[in-house]
Amino acid sequence: MNFSEYVVSRWDTLSLAAAEHALVVGIAIGVSTAVGIGIGLLTHDLPKVRGLSLAISAAILTVPSLALLTLLIPITGLGWGSTLVALTAYAFLPIIRNTVAGLRGVDAAMVEAGRGMGMGRARVLLKVRLPLAWPLILTGVRVATQMLIGIAAIAAYVDGPGLGTQIFEGLSRLGSVNALNATLAGTLGIVVIAVLFDLFFFAVRQLTIPRGLRVRP
Amino acid sequence: MTTATLRAGRTRPFGRVSGLRHVITPVILCGVLFALYAWISAQNLDSIESRSLTREFLLAKAVEHVQLTFLATALVVVVAIPLGVVASRARNRLIAPVILTVANLGQAIPCIGLLVLCTFLLGVGFQTALVGLVAYAVLPVLRNTMVGVQQVDPALIEAARGMGMTRGQVLRRVELKLAVPAILAGLRTALVLTVGVATLGAFVAAGGFGELIINGLKLNRMPVTIVGAVLTACIAFFIDWLSGLAEDLLKPRGI
Amino acid sequence: MFDRDTGGARIELRALTKHYPGQPAPAVDHVDLDIPAGELVVFVGPSGCGKTTTMKMINRLVEPTSGEIRIGGEDVLSLHPDELRRHIGYAIQQVGLFPHQTIGQNIGLVPKLLGWSAARTAERVEELLTLVNLEPSAFHDRYPSQLSGGQQQRVGVARALAADPPVMLMDEPFGATDPITREHLQNEFVKLQKQLRKTIIFVTHDFEEAIKLGDRIAVLRERSHIAQYDTPANILAHPADDYVAGFIGQDATLKRLALLRVGDVECTQQRGSADMPQITSDASLREALDVMLAHGTDRCGSPSGVLTYGALCEAVGTEPASASEPTPASAARKEPVGAGPATALKEAVRR
User: Fold this and answer.
1) Is B128 on the interface with A (CB under 8 A)?
2) What is the mean pLDDT of residues B172-182?
3) Is the pTM of this model over 0.95?
4) Span A3-209: which CATH code?
5) Which of A73, B198, C3, C14 is the most buried (most CB within 10 A)?
6) How far apart (Å, rounded) are the C-alpha atoms in residues A156 and C57?
7) Is there a contact between C113 and B161 if contact means CB atoms under 8 Å apart?
């Protein structure tokens, strides 16, 4: 059986696994984007807390994924639970780091102009800093997503959902007819998901970044 | 400027070793390892568990893990930095974006998929894991080297050329020196990435701490899995700490 | 090479042209110029006129398309570019100090490239730091990021002087500093050049700076065509055309006054009265005029005698009462008899 025949014959399994893969990554990135931007907004002006939140999220990212996933088994069990928790935790660093960098990188003159017009601190944060920081925040979310798509493949080993199951199936049947096909299907499927997510973020970028920041002279 | 800052400026212009940051990691790691030891000692281990948790076995796995990590990183240094320099020199304006795109896309290939695919070509074993790891870690270092060299202020290059440095001298003495922080940052990323992915080497029979995790899960022996996972995390933190230290020491002063 | 005599070498440009491929017109078009040894020549012109390109052809950071460059009689285009540049000082607006090297290493770079011994280099670095008024013991081991903008500019000049080159090229070296620091650096630089007598090509778009520093000024128009090449005083007195006059601005006479010293003007040999304002002989005539205006008088005392408003006008070649040029004094004639020019001046100032 060649690769295309394999894909056609297992289309239902593969598409379900791909959908689950995208879903688990989507949920995790949604949660950590909301929480991460929140943390960034709250801490960007407090050096100590900011440093601590960055250090913790960096430490989480240092833990190898297989180790974190297995350490979560006693707490959140096998499958979706551990996968979601681990993926969400991994996404924090790029998102918080870029949010903080974006908010802090805003030109002081613009903040001063906003304050000078009588905007309060909160209003300046939401109306001036956040829109200007948005491109960088979006980049952080995109980078985090690409990373999670790869890590989610490993989650299959702790019974997590997604295309990783295909890769581990290939590994466990090393030498059999469909081993290579399964591995290829899983790997390429994940690359396709990554590309699709990238396109999605490109669209979001075009739609949400203020026109004034996109147009080039 | 006061004399105090002047004197401080002369002896140690920049806080090279910000004390606390470099002490806190090993202290926490020692604490965690001690707690793990105490916890395991308190467990009633069955024969399978106690066979997997002997000192010799753990040491052997640690050696495998570290060997795999450092050998892969050394190969990455040899391959990626020269390639990055060549790419940054490229007169052809097309080469840089192509490399950046490939580097970003390559990041999307799941490392476990890459490792298993390598097995189909090379069989299982240490070399397979090594090839997979190198392939995976080359791109971030290459990209950082290229970007690091390219982002050097053009005014500095003009000044250097204007003083009569040859192109080679400008590259060696100015561009590469100033790219060192970016290159080191890329290497640190690669090293931490590698130590994590080396855990997956156990799937292709390359040993390392991953073996404990996998065996524990296969045989349903949670203590073994947890020891494997904690040790993997500890070694990752240790190597991150070590590369942070190296980064601070190797960075040219003044930047 | 041409630097056997470090006191400055003559530079000759002959039909120097740079034509970038794909451009309809050359960026620099047939420039002919002689720069006498030991003089500071300022290239001044609007941005994009090719002044920097012309300068960069001399140390071949830009390769000429055609033409000839000679330094001290030697054909520059026959030399190896890297070797050539080691014998020409080069300072730029961004300074371009290497951030990973100490001030000492930055200055000692060219001597090192030229293979000087460590001891000789170290000695030279000390000497140069002292020359640009930076205390060697305090600055030698510091890094560029620890210096202020003005200090960095001085190090930039010291680095350009490091190998004692006969020729220096300077591209707006004081351009990025604040006005006060710039004035300070300019004054120091004028003193330094009086002592060193290098042949210097100095590029700027600031005409005031050109007058202040230049022995000669080359006013350039587009494609580096030379609109006028003369001493500052002659350019101010006789601008070649409207372009040059426009570049000088409305206050040419005031600028000329600023160029002349009280000591250069013949004063009437009489002792001034005690209530007459006094001025030193190395003050400029512009300052003297300012003193007269401030005191509402037409004369002030100097060590060599009394300086009158009339003498001041003569010095810049205008008649005190001539109508051809609207000097403040011309208003005086309409005043009733008895009211001297000083009254008119005072009125003018009040208005």
Assistant:
1) no
2) 92
3) no
4) 1.10.3720.10
5) B198
6) 65
7) no
